[in-house]
Amino acid sequence: MKNSPQEEWPEPIIRVQSLSEACVDSIPDRYIKPPTDRPSFSSSPDDDDVVSNIPIIDLHPLFSASDPAARASVLAQISDACRDWGFFQIVNHGVSPELMDKARDTWRQFFHLPVEMKQQYANSPKTYEGYGSRLGVQKGAILDWSDYYFLHYLPLQLKDHNKWPSHPPYSREVVEEYGREVVKLCGRVMKVLSVNLGLEEDRLENGFGGEEVGACLRVNFYPKCPRPELTLGLSSHSDPGGMTMLLPDSEVAGLQVRRLDTWITVKPARHAFIVNIGDQLQVLSNAIYKSVEHRVIVNSNQERVSLAFFYNPKSNIPIEPVKELVTPDRPALYPPMTFDEYRLFIRLKGPQGKSQVESLKSPR
């Protein structure tokens, strides 16, 4: 067992999964959110008026020889979703349903391994890669009701299979194949986002570093919680990276998206990915596309597993509004900042709504 990484966290790490198994009708104070941040369970998450879904978009016309009108309709739907929601679901996206199910099931098996096996991959604040249970390093912080596993997929020099779980026995092969297919899908969607901004189709991708983009995977495990009304699986935040491709739990809803002043519980479509705009795309698009606050609620009866695949800029190039989108009427809203600098800024503080990206706006 590797204990040294844990010593770098501000307090001893407690695995939430172990708390879930030990807690019967209460949770430790460290996980109780302030009243203003607690979820509302006044209505059932299954009510149609509560589970008002984010847009669901069928990508089939993009990948087939469909008529131009069908393709234009899909482009328009994605454009509206990026501008109005910052979130949308995609179906018929080209990643096989079997691979999606296998990836999620493989990670569920990992989280049910004996704790000493998982501890071999315990992470630290310096690398963040590996098995973890907290984000920020602020001492005494209120914590989220979740464990996770984080790993790098791109660039290739950061990919280290030895830092990936070796159990279940086929897990590294599954993660490799899943990453390869999702990277392809992200590239296709980025082209659409570029075209919808009136840019060359490779413009946003090139703004991310072209062939040197980054990609990483964060697998979230939300154990059962005896007091779900007091805590969150993941606090409110916007994603710091470029674009997120989320494979949600097929059985248990949990993701909530902030829409104006309302939290909407997303009902996942079957074998859909949930796509959301990250802070870096908000910056590149000069806030035409917007990253949106979201959070995760937990469940007293069921655990939940989700896979968040982050498609990010190269870490050391300055990200700033694309020059074609800067005009006298709409000057650049953000100063240049590398993704490395921004990620460090986020990691020190932990999830804090959209305050981080908004604080970067250039003074007017």
What does the secondary structure layout of this molecule look like, with pairings?
Blueprint: H1 4-7, H2 16-22, E1 56-58, H3 60-63, H4 68-84, E2 87-91, H5 97-111, H6 115-119, E3 130-132, E4 147-154, H7 171-196, H8 203-207, E5 214-222, E6 234-237, E7 243-247, E8 255-259, E9 262-265, E10 273-277, H9 279-284, E11 294-296, E12 304-312, E13 318-319, E14 337-338, H10 339-349, H11 355-359
Parallel strand pairs: 1-2
Antiparallel strand pairs: 2-10, 3-4, 4-5, 5-12, 6-11, 7-10, 7-12, 8-9, 8-11, 13-14
The count of domains is 1
Task: Count the E strands.
Answer: 14
Specify the overall morphology. globular
Mean residue pLDDT: 90
CATH architecture label? Sandwich
* CATH C-level label: Mainly Beta
Main structural class: alpha+beta
CATH superfamily: B-lactam Antibiotic, Isopenicillin N Synthase, Chain
User: For the report, how would you describe the main beta sheet?
Assistant: 8 strands, mixed
Cofactor: L-ascorbate; Fe(2+)
Keywords: Dioxygenase, Iron, Jasmonic acid signaling pathway, Metal-binding, Oxidoreductase, Plant defense, Vitamin C
Catalytic activity: jasmonate + 2-oxoglutarate + O2 = (1R,2R)-12-hydroxyjasmonate + succinate + CO2
Family: Belongs to the iron/ascorbate-dependent oxidoreductase family.
